[in-house]
Specification:
By secondary structure, the protein is mainly α. It has twelve helices and no strands. Helix 4 packs parallel to helix 7. The longest helix has 37 residues. The protein is elongated, with a radius of gyration of 23 Å. It starts with 11 loop residues before the first helix and ends in a 6-residue tail after the last helix.
Length: 285
């Protein structure tokens, strides 16, 4: 008679109970993210004007009913640019996280499960990328590949793979030593089956938490690339481009850079705080 030990799983009742116990700051973070996502989705409906092609006669206008946040040095409505700029500012980090997970998680699982020379080769390769700051790696790749959102996303994703893989590998090594994994191995289940059916599901919360935190960091890093001229080309609506609008700043018009900067900081903090909340261990009643 074989004994099957299944991995522990959270029940729907436990998830509901934890949801009700979320602190106010977590709900505030969720609200900030929800507002940003809704603003990006419905930007064409919410924006009072076109985000580009402003009239030079309307440059640097103060806040008014027609222009709630005023206009920039090119005469573009700042609120409209802020809403439309939410799309690339959110889509970019999303693809960064997805790409880094698609590459980092399999590498981490292979490294943790196989060990030996596989672990050493993967570890040395990740260390080689990890020893350089992510923004520096991204900047070098963008310089070679060219500017634009696609190149910036690919560059940041490559820089994030070692971080994702190292964290996942540590958790996978800890999870692999638990009795239910050992029992599955003794029963003759294949490594791939154990990894997909048992190991990966129990790492899901940790992976989701790290992906959420990575989203916040990627948001800031992509904005930084656009700020220094290595990301999205102006005058395309993007928060990083808006922060780097030196023409408006020279003219004393800080509305656009301040509004975009506040959006980046608030969303970055919201995703980081939410990721830390997700990574908290379950509390026993």
């Amino acid at each position: 008679m074989s004994i099957i030990l299944e991995a522990p799983s959270n029940t729907g009742r436990t998830a509901t109970r934890r949801l009700r116990r979320l602190p106010p700051l977590t709900w505030a973070a969720i609200a900030v993210i929800a507002v940003a996502v809704l603003g990006a989705l419905f930007a064409p409906l919410l924006a009072p004007h076109s985000p580009t092609g402003g009239d030079i006669l309307d440059q640097s206008l103060p806040m008014s009913a027609s222009h709630p946040l005023g206009t920039d040095a090119a005469g573009n409505d700042i609120l409209s640019r802020l809403l439309h700029g939410a799309r690339p500012s959110l889509l970019g980090p999303l693809f960064v996280v997805l790409l880094s997970l698609l590459a980092g998680v399999p590498l981490a699982l292979a490294s943790a499960w196989k060990g030996g020379w596989v672990d050493r080769i993967i570890g040395r390769g990740l260390d080689l990328v990890f020893c350089f700051p992510s923004v520096l790696v991204a900047a070098l790749i963008v310089v070679v590949a060219g500017r634009g959102l696609t190149a910036a996303v690919a560059a940041i994703a490559i820089a994030y793979i070692p971080w994702t893989a190292r964290i996942t590998r540590t958790a996978a090594l800890r999870e692999r030593s638990k009795p239910y994994i050992v029992a599955c191995y003794v029963q003759g289940q294949s490594a791939l089956s154990i990894a997909l059916r048992h190991l990966l599901p129990n790492l899901a919360r940790m992976i989701i938490a790290q992906a959420t935190i990575s989203f916040g960091f990627a948001l800031v890093d992509l904005a930084m690339l656009s700020f220094v001229g290595l990301g999205i080309d102006p005058p395309a609506p993007d928060w990083g481009v808006m922060v780097g609008d030196t023409t408006s700043i020279v003219q004393g018009n800080y509305n656009g850079p301040l509004a975009a900067g506040m959006c980046i900081v608030l969303l970055g903090l919201a995703f980081t705080f939410l990721g830390n909340t997700i990574s908290d261990p379950d509390k026993e009643d």
